[in-house]
Amino acid sequence: MDVQQMDDFITAPEEVGYALLESCKAPSSLCEYGGKVQPVGKYEIQDFQNSPPQDPFELTSSSPNSRASDSSLPVEYLEEHAEHQETTNQSEDEMNYFLPPLEQPWTEYLDKSVNAPYRYVASLPGKDFRGKILAACNVWLQIDKHSLATIERVVTMLHNASLLIDDIQDGSTLRRGSPAAHEVYGVAATINSGNYVYFEAQSQLLSLPQSLKLITIFNEELVNLHRGQGMDIYWRDTFSVPTEAEYLHMISNKTGGLFRLAIRLMMAVSESDLDLLEFTNVLGLLFQIQDDYKNLTSDNMEAAKGFCEDLTEGKFSYPIIHAIHSGRDVHSEILKILRLRTDKDYLKRHVVSLMANITGSLAYTEHAIRALHAYAIKLLGTIQPDNPLMRDILDTLV
Questions:
Q1: Where is this region: Disordered (predicted)?
Q2: What is the pTM of this model?
């Protein structure tokens, strides 16, 4: 390159830039092979230096100043450019055909397909215990109808979603007297549906005032719930027997977490300054220990989940923990049967008989239920106004 060519190169950067851009696209381009830039080859820089600067993407034959009508452009270049433009248009058409719009709406059909396991478990008749708790607490907190309905929807979604995951983790085959969701839809789809609904539930809170505070509460209690569930699984899978105190701490997270989440959300949007957390914690303990007792003794529980399902799962429930720590000689016998995770009814009835007649664990559990109920009634008396609806709920737990 002589001095004049160098001057042209410097004073016409747009022209050179255009040449480089187009030659990188064309077959004879400046391309990178193995990390080395190959020379253009058949075009010289002087082929482009006389063309006036203009937008490189506005090539029209109708314009007298366009590159297509510029006699200084080589015929070979124009032919290659036209061929390249045709290929580009064809590629864009193909992309538009194969790639759906990114803004494609999430339809009800898609949601039903992905979320069928949740819809299934939500359709099974339940006692709506948590909904009744919220209605009773609103006697005190007096939140508006929209907030109450939203929080109730969030709690219901979380509860049913957690059942999907729990039944997989526990190996349960029945839920509310019907096949568990994963037995119908498979494990993978059921896990995905449960996790999906966790986030759907959280998004419901965005419609309420102080949504950031509400989401913080949501996250805190969901963490507590998973901590409690994790400890329950760890003890079962490692066959580590917890103490009674450790078990109570675990269920205050696993079961109490959802109760606390509901009441804390209500307290956050209420204008009342009532603190219902202690009452809520007692309620969670009472509910879970009564559930443990009924799992071993209730005909209704047998119909809904199977006979003594906790024994089949090898789970350390409140009465089972007491039986193992009772110091009686039969504790090793109970442990051996528990380790079997048996579905044989005669073995499970034998364990229940030992807990009723030898270790006194069923009576001990009954005493714990009455004590927690009495304490809940005492706390109820300190909260104004009087709440007969909550009193009726407590009486169903004893």
A1: 46-73
A2: 0.74
